[in-house]
Design goal:
Layout lengths: L4 H15 L19 H13 L3 E3 L5 E3 L1 H8 L12 E6 L2 E7 L9 E4 L2 E9 L4 E6 L17 H12 L9 H16 L7 E4 L2 E5 L4 H13 L3 E4 L3 E5 L3 H13 L5 H5 L16 H12 L2 H15 L2
Parallel strand pairs: 3-7
Antiparallel strand pairs: 1-2, 3-4, 5-6, 6-7, 8-9, 9-11, 10-11
Helix pairs in contact: 6-10, 7-10
Amino acid sequence: MKIQNKYILKSSLNNADSYQNHPENHLGRLFIVFSGFERKEFAELLRSLGTKEILIQDKSGLLLLRPSGERSVNHFSFLAAFTSQEEFRIINAGKPLGTLPLSRPVEEGSHLIFAGRRWRVLSCRPEDRVIEVETAKGGKLPLFDGMGGKVHDRIRKEMRCILSELSPVSFLDKVAARQLEEARCAYAQLGLDHNLILNNGSDTVLFTWLGDWINDTLALMLIHHGLRASNEGLLVRIHGTKYDEVMNVLSKMRSTLPDSPELLAHSVQNKLREKWDYLLTEPLLRKTYASRELDLTGARQFILEISRLSHI
């Protein structure tokens, strides 16, 4: 179940505000409302709010808002249901290149496209919204998707169904119909109805036909095993790695799957996504990121399926 820390934080601050006038509404009962959120984690959250000077506890144990907490609670944006995606400043050799919104996991050594060029990530400081990069040499440009919303499993599966069919799509114009025909020819020539792993130059690609939650998880799992991988939408690309090596790693992954998606989230540097994430401790931040952005169960099922089809 997804852990929505933004609601827990908002409820905590709201209740701390009302507690001052209604002490019978005990703040400690809040954790009961949120399944998947344990008492010790709630205590950890309250301690973090104290460290960040949002809450303070008096001698009687009463939790009160500090001035900065009062400003947050009383500000008109406190009750906003949605947050705008913040942009990261891209820095190269001390020179600012511009800003870029990021929705995919970023790690040291990963690549991104900015200003029509390919860059390698040197470091990421999410608290400052800064990413330091250097020019990436050689290789194929990674796909830049505009960092829009994530794509669900059902969309990718429907795309595969359309590509595997021969019947025309009546509402397409001539250009779109021709592009669909080209895509169907490529699908048939590559044997993508049964091939899920293909060589692509110096890289190997996994055609998962699954959503971005599973693809992001698979990419992080491959990175966890020492490979350089990225989610490129329809596929997961393993950079500079041949087919046989990828198959060996997949075989190992089948028997050494991580127990928790939080282990995968540990290396992700841009975990701050929601308005109140900056108030969380690192363990709570990993947990909320993993529950919101990753799908370990789906990734496990894909690895088992590809192992069965490839007889590894």
